[in-house]
Amino acid sequence: MSSFTFQWPSALLLICLLIPISWLLRRARKQRKIILRSMGAERRTHRVLKDGLRLVAWALIALAVARPGYAPYYEATSQTGRDVVFALDVSQSMLARDVSPNRLEVAKQGIRDALDQFSNERVALIVYAGTASILCPLTYDYDFARYMLEQANPRTVDFGGTTLQSAVEKAVDQIFDPERNGVQDLLILTDGGDHGSQMERVETLLAESNTGLLIVGLGDPNNGSPILLPQEDGSLQTLEIDQQPVLTKLEDALLRNLSATYPNAEYIAAETKPFHLGQLYNDYAADKSTLSGNANSGKIIYQEAAIFFLIPGLICLLLAERWSARKLGSSAIVLSLFFCGFPQVSVRAETVLHALETDFDKATALIEGETYDEALETLNSIIEQSASGQLSAEQMAASLFNRGLCLIELSVQQAEQSPAGALELAQKARLAFLKSKAYKQDFERAGLRIELSTRWIQELKGLIEEEGNQASDDSSPQSSEDAENESLDDYEDMYEDDYSEMSESMPDSSYSEGDLAAGSSMQSLPAPNYTIEDILLEEKGNLQFRQQKRANANAAKVEKDY
């Protein structure tokens, strides 16, 4: 095994283009010299050196494209040649949070870990609760399996509850191939709760198909945990029966009994501890038969060395295009400063990003604990520090959305004591939701919150107007109108300042679709959906509506007096 190689050797054919390129550059030099002589000029332009740098740059870039590699190492892969069917429990009890973030997400992450380790297994995915449904048939397309795994949730099945028997019947009757008996495994991830399964029937089905069975139990077996159901507005609601929260824990008695009576079964109580499903399955299937017979296969991985050719090539190209005594010196200084400072900048950026992600996790925990003041301070700090572009558009959208949630909660708390203060907080909250929607245009939860916050602002304005009418019945309409205009001017200034700040930190290119994640990579940001003109137009419309309402009331009063 060679210690250095080109992983795309066909790209080396690009070097052959050096011959025609060199001929074209030489011809261009001759033509240039003829033109200069006809004009009476004999100035030396160092064209030979410039063209030489261009040829060297082309050769180095071609070598980089060929993906040079060094320091190879052997990576063993699991190629058992078996069929693996994942049966995922998606009942509501899997939403309990005795493991973080919840049992369902931990189970899905376990399946992802297994898919990352598999290479020659055919995989399928079944979700079950009261009934079972096939999300992915047997396939070698792991990307498709990962995509369907993301769609798994309690709403992907028709009936609630938990019936393991339905998942086993679905796997045996519709997925497993009778011609491959003995090389088929069923991996079940569940919290153990079951309602109505006939374990004798389950054992019979598994025995007839000679299916291997690996069961992973999730959840705290000792202490019950509440079930938090997501709502349409993005909030969480505790599942209750007779106004009492439903508590769930790992109920593995049936699972342990099944693994004890069925010879090809193994039960692993992961409980609340971390686990790697791929490793667990490899240990389980280590002595199982295969059809491919290549369990010891693997692949050679090389360290990428393209950067060592690409950077010198770009330097040569830059120097060739900026050739002169003065320009050459300035370019050299800029390049030396860039490459000397680049590692320090990268390390510093990575450190800042890690700190921001830590603060985001802290803010999320504070929101869950309903400590909105501290959460708001933390989120404000994150947003201020991210002005330099350290956070992705997705992370900024999440931070602004959570900031809006905190402001709304604080506004609701202050509504009775100080409607004016609550109104100010509500307006800031809506602005935060607008910014969040601008950073991520497909953010439906932010769009819903924009509508809800707008309604709340109108309610607060109505409350403030009622209190004002009770306190000063003899105040003139003109003075009230002036106050409204002044308030609108202040509101306009606030939006202009905040929006300009956001615009300065947003790049021009678009951002790809994705869900919120604290650890996503750097992405460019889209143009916002909402402009300052749209916002001000909405506020002016609200002002006109209130003025018209006041005029109608005054007219009715005059008619009554008359």
Characterise this structure.
The chain has helices at 18-38, 47-65, 103-117, 142-150, 164-174, 199-208, 253-261, 277-284, 307-321, 325-368, 372-385, 393-414, 419-439, 444-471, 477-504, 532-561, and strands at 4-6, 68-76, 83-89, 122-128, 132-139, 184-190, 212-218, 225-226, 228-230, 236-238, 240-241, 244-245, 247-248, 265-271, 298-304. The protein is of the alpha/beta class. Strands 5-4-3-6-7-14 form a 6-stranded mixed beta sheet, with helices on both faces. A 3-stranded antiparallel beta sheet has the order 1-2-15. The chain has a two-stranded antiparallel sheet with strand order 8-13. It is flat and about 100 Å long.
Low-confidence stretches: 292-296, 337-349, 487-536, 558-562
| Gyration radius, rounded | 33 Å
Q: Tell me, what is the CATH class of the largest domain?
A: Alpha Beta
CATH architecture grouping of the largest domain: 3-Layer(aba) Sandwich
* Sheet with the most strands: spatial strand order: 5-4-3-6-7-14
- Strand tally: 15
**Distance between the terminal alpha carbons, to the nearest Å?**
105 Å
Largest sheet: 6 strands, mixed
Q: What does the average pLDDT come to?
A: 75
How many structural domains can be distinguished in the coordinates?
Answer: 3
Portion of residues in helices? 40-55%
Q: CATH superfamily name of the largest domain?
A: von Willebrand factor, type A domain
Number of helices: 16
Provide the β-strand percentage band: 5-15%
- Taken from the alpha-carbon principal axes, the silhouette is flat
CATH topology of the largest domain: Rossmann fold
Which structural class do the helices and strands define? alpha/beta
